[in-house]
């Protein structure tokens, strides 16, 4: 009872301080809000919307069920999740936060996952997409496209490591489908056909529902991005970021990491984009330490993304605590992998930002392509966002919803 009252007072005091701070720093709050809005309608909305809509259609037509049956022999032994987890994992890596949580919640509502399986799955299927890692961080912030290889490898290998560790989560609870399954194309096609038969909605209705559901999720994501952009700025102005950075600097000193990375690190704990950008701007710091810091920030994914995931999971019985614990594990594992790969990969194959001729062909990405894609999103993304929002409003008016 006492703890509950203390929690109430803490929450009330925090939101009051935030309101007073916004009134005290109106210009800074407005600029931070605009920054979050630009990020959402230029990059996040146009990049995630097509994948959200297609994912809904794939689930409705049974394609995800088909993939799930095929991947069952792989996903079950590795991660103790059904085969549909392979689809969620792939889409999470391709599209970025918070697609993995959104798809996991969707499959949980349909009964394709138990609660324990959903909590395992959501813990390692949320990640930054390649566009953000290569285009925004390595090219946009560090002006070093080769760094994207280290960041991507440490990030995705860290996620894989988290998946292997989380397979032991809830191991005492009996989950369905724990028996060994053999690859069966016939069973996969049967599941595909049965799912399509059970879907009673016509294609037009299914597409409309997919658009409405996807836009609603993205509007929620946009709200969190703008909110945490403002919160992060206010924490900096109130010197709260500096206080936590002072505490973190003690740990950095023990592990021989420069104290100058402490403030960007704390900023990244709240919002990954700002934290990554601030880390890239730190002067007189070893690039390996900057890479380790960014790898942790990307793995932890920031309270902004975690709040988005928590909001999505709140509509189900999936608990948030396992996801939060997994983010801490992902942060440390990604930073450790970046440190391990630094000398044998980056220092061996790259020299002053230029790839060596000895680097394998499959590890020579088209860096200019990532930069052009990012610039295209920033140029045409707002137009696409506005067009889709107008279409979304039209669908709501057609349904007669008073939103």
UniProtKB/TrEMBL annotation:
Which Pfam families does the entry link to?
Gate
Organism this protein belongs to? Falsibacillus pallidus
Q: What sequence ranges are listed for the domain Nucleoside transporter/FeoB GTPase Gate?
A: 44-140, 218-314
| Name of the protein in its database record | Sporulation integral membrane protein YlbJ
Record bears the keyword Secreted:
no
Q: Which stretches are transmembrane?
A: 43-71, 121-143, 149-170, 206-228, 234-254, 292-312, 324-342, 377-397
> Which keywords does this Swiss-Prot/TrEMBL entry list?
Membrane, Transmembrane, Transmembrane helix
Output the superkingdom of the source species: Bacteria
Carries keyword Repressor?
no
Mind giving the lineage of the organism this protein is from? Bacteria, Bacillati, Bacillota, Bacilli, Bacillales
């Amino acid at each position: 009872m006492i703890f509950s009252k203390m929690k109430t007072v803490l929450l009330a005091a925090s939101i009051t301080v935030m309101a007073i701070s916004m009134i005290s720093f109106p210009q800074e709050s407005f600029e931070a809000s605009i920054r979050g809005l630009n990020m959402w309608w230029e990059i996040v909305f146009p990049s995630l919307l097509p994948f959200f809509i297609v994912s809904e259609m794939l689930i409705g037509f049974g394609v995800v069920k088909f993939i799930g049956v095929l991947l069952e022999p792989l996903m079950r032994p590795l991660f103790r999740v059904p085969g549909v987890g392979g689809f969620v994992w792939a889409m999470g890596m391709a599209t970025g936060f918070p697609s993995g949580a959104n798809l996991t919640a969707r499959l949980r509502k349909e009964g394709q996952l138990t609660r324990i399986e959903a909590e395992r799955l959501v813990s390692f299927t949320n990640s930054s997409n390649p566009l953000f890692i290569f285009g925004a961080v390595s090219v946009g912030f560090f002006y070093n496209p080769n760094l994207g290889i280290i960041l991507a490898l440490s990030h995705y290998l860290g996620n894989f490591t988290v998946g292997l560790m989380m397979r032991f989560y809830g191991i005492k609870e009996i989950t369905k489908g724990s028996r060994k399954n053999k690859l069966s194309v016939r069973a996969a096609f049967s599941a595909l056909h049965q799912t399509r038969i059970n879907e009673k909605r016509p294609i037009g209705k299914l597409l409309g529902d997919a658009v409405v559901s996807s836009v609603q999720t993205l509007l929620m994501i946009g709200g969190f991005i703008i909110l945490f952009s403002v919160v992060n700025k206010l924490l900096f102005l109130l010197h709260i970021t500096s206080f936590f950075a002072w505490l973190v600097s003690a740990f950095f000193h023990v592990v021989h990491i420069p104290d100058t990375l402490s403030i960007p690190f704390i900023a990244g704990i709240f919002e990954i984009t700002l934290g990554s950008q601030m880390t890239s701007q730190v002067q007189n710091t070893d690039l390996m330490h900057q890479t380790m810091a960014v790898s942790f920030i990307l793995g932890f994914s920031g309270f902004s993304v975690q709040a988005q995931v928590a909001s999505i999971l709140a509509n189900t019985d999936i608990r948030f605590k396992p996801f939060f614990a997994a983010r801490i594990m992902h942060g440390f594992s990604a930073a450790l992998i970046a440190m391990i790969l630094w000398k044998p990969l980056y220092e061996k194959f790259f020299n002053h930002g230029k790839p060596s001729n000895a680097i394998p062909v499959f590890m020579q990405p088209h860096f200019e392509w990532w930069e052009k894609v990012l610039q295209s999103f920033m140029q045409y993304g707002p137009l696409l966002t506005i067009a889709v929002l107008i279409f979304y409003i039209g669908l709501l008016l057609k349904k007669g919803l008073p939103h």
